[in-house]
Amino acid sequence: MIETNIFFSALSNDVRLRCLMLLVEEEELCVCEFTHALGLAQPAVSRHLALLREAGIVLDRREGLWIHYRLHPDMPQWALEVLQVTAQGIVGLSPFQDDLKVLEDMPNRPGAPRCA
Amino acid sequence: MIETNIFFSALSNDVRLRCLMLLVEEEELCVCEFTHALGLAQPAVSRHLALLREAGIVLDRREGLWIHYRLHPDMPQWALEVLQVTAQGIVGLSPFQDDLKVLEDMPNRPGAPRCA
DNA sequence: ACGTTATATATGGTATTTGATATATATTGT
DNA sequence: ACAATATATATCAAATACCATATATAACGT
């Protein structure tokens, strides 16, 4: 990822920022976990994740039917720090706080790293 | 400032991000310094600064004919950290690096805190 | 090969953002 | 009161982003 305007416009949408805040906390998530946590329709989530992927902010990995997303390991250090600093600042606020709670209560999570 | 989408969409424009990166380094600048450093028309700069003001990211202060802008002191800590981390990451790249150099070489700067 | 599940892409309508240009406001000096 | 300077706002066309809905793809089990 190179262009700062693409990076920040990616963060400027609520749905995408909520997805990223979840990824800062949760390491790796599949689409069904995002749709469950955010309470949004699958095409909406998928389209926003596609934009994050094209921006180089997330990386996807297919495993059977599931596609797992995580923060892109090649993201510049400053961009990762922006995400982490933002998460520290807003993770206690709505709707981000609720998203995490809903995700943790989700039944039958696919890969489910247990949330400490 | 409260809404994350307003904050990040403010940063998603090149002109505004360049203004903010200058403010992270320079403390306080007036409009003529922005227009000189960025090489843009006054109305363009003024409108972008207005947007930053409405978003609560900068604060303006009139002194005679000049209007000085600085980072808003009431900005949430995490937002300020986002700006600082971003500056550390990109201040060495174009066009941000050049903006600073052009500003330092500007003749007859108004308040001009000398740049260390 | 067929159905099912998980995810992706396409489409169209509407709203927002942008850049360029013109005009307005506010302050100072005379 | 007038001119000059610094800055702000208004306007409009073009581009972009957004949401909702419909459709397509890809992998798996039978």
Protein described:
Chain A has 116 residues and is of the alpha+beta class. Chain A is built from six helices and three strands; from the N terminus they run H-H-E-H-H-E-E-H-H. A three-stranded antiparallel beta sheet of chain A has the order 1-3-2. The radius of gyration of chain A is 13 Å and the shape is globular. Chain A binds chain B through residues 4-5, 8-9, 11-14, 17, 76-79, 81-82, 85-86, 88-90, and chain B through 4-5, 8-9, 11-14, 17, 76-79, 81-82, 85-86, 88-90.
Order of helix and strand elements from N to C terminus of chain A = HHEHHEEHH
The most extensive interface between chains reads:
A-B, 20 and 20 residues
The number of helical segments of chain A is: 6
- The CATH architecture designation of chain A is Orthogonal Bundle
Helical percentage of chain A: 55-70%
Rounded Rg of chain A: 13 Å
Per the CATH scheme, the topology name of chain A is Arc Repressor Mutant, subunit A
Main sheet strand line-up of chain A: 1-3-2
Strand content of chain A: 5-15%
The main sheet of chain A comes to: 3 strands, antiparallel
Oligomer: homodimer
Distance between the termini of chain A: 31 Å
Number of domains of chain A: 1
The CATH homologous superfamily of chain A: Winged helix-like DNA-binding domain superfamily/Winged helix DNA-binding domain
* Topology, number of strands of chain A: 3
Question: So what's the CATH class of chain A?
Answer: Mainly Alpha
Name the structural class of chain A: alpha+beta
Shape of chain A: globular
Mean pLDDT across residues of chain A: 93
Low-confidence stretches of chain A: none
